[in-house]
Amino acid sequence: MNEEKILKFIKSKLKIRRKDVIVGPGDDTAVLRYDKKYYLLATTDCLVEDVHFRKKEISYYQLGRKAIAVNLSDIAAMGGFPLYALVSAGFPEGKKEMIDGILKGMEELAEEFKFDIVGGNLTKSQFIFIDIFMVGKVEKKYLKLRNGAKPGDLIFVTGKLGASQLKKHLFLRPRINEARRLVKKVKISAMIDISDGLSSDLIRIAKESNVGFEIYSDKIPVSEDAVKISKNREEAILHALSDGEDYELLFTVPEKYSANIPEKIFSTPVTFIGRIISEKSYYLIENGKKRKIGSMGFNHFG
Question: What does pTM read for this prediction?
Answer without folding.
Answer: 0.95
